[in-house]
Specification:
CATH superfamily: Gcn5-related N-acetyltransferase (GNAT)
Number of helices: 4
Distance between the termini: 32 Å
CATH architecture: 3-Layer(aba) Sandwich
Helix content: 25-40%
Number of domains: 1
Strand content: 35-45%
CATH class: Alpha Beta
Radius of gyration: 15 Å
Length: about 160
C-alpha cells in the first residue's frame, strides 16, 4: 500500500467532489447542507482553507483534508482541520496518516494548536481517532448537531496544543 499526501491542485477537485458529496449527503458527520452544490463545495474545501491536501492510495485520491485559521486576531495561532475519506478506502489508516500530516503541516504554517469545532458525538470512530492523536474534548454543545437518524445529538469541541 503506497500512501502519498500532497497539496491539492484545482484539477483534483474532480476526484474530491465524489468524496465530499457522499459525506455531505449522508449528513451524519459534517454540518454542510445535504444539498450542497459542486460550486459551494469547491468554495468551502478548496478556496476558504489556507491549504487543502489529497491523500493518494496506489495513485487514486482516496481522502482529503484542509487546514485553515480557526479564528483571527488574537486566536490566529489556532488552526482548524477537516478530513474526508472515500467510503471504499475507510478503515485503512488514512485518517490517522492525514491527521499526523496535518499536525506537522500546521506547525510549519506556524500554528500552535489545532481545534475541531463541531465533531458529532455519534461519530465515535473519529472521536476515538482524534483522542488517540492527543486531542482532548474541551467542550460539548448539547443537541447542536441534527443527525439524520439519531435526531439532536451533542457536538464536541476537540483541541490539541501542537508545540511542546
Amino acid at each position: 500500500m503506497s500512501v502519498v499526501i500532497r497539496p491539492a491542485v484545482e484539477e483534483d477537485f474532480d476526484a474530491i467532489w465524489p468524496i465530499f458529496e457522499s459525506v455531505a449527503r449522508a449528513g451524519d458527520t459534517y454540518a454542510y447542507s445535504r444539498n450542497i452544490t459542486h460550486e459551494e463545495a469547491y468554495q468551502q474545501w478548496m478556496v476558504v482553507p489556507r491549504k487543502t491536501f489529497v491523500c493518494e492510495l496506489d495513485g487514486n485520491i482516496a481522502a482529503t483534508y484542509y487546514l485553515k485559521t480557526n479564528a483571527y486576531g488574537p486566536g490566529s495561532h489556532v488552526c482548524n482541520a477537516g478530513f474526508m475519506t472515500a467510503e471504499a478506502f475507510r478503515g485503512r489508516g488514512l485518517a490517522a496518516a492525514m491527521c499526523e500530516h496535518a499536525q506537522r503541516e500546521a506547525i510549519k504554517m506556524q500554528y500552535l494548536a489545532m481545534q475541531f469545532n463541531f465533531v458529532a458525538s455519534t461519530n465515535t470512530g473519529a472521536v476515538a481517532l482524534w483522542e488517540r492523536q492527543g486531542f482532548d474534548i474541551v467542550g460539548r454543545l448539547p443537541k447542536a448537531f441534527k443527525h439524520p437518524s439519531h435526531g439532536l445529538v451533542d457536538a464536541l469541541v476537540m483541541y490539541k496544543w501542537l508545540i511542546n
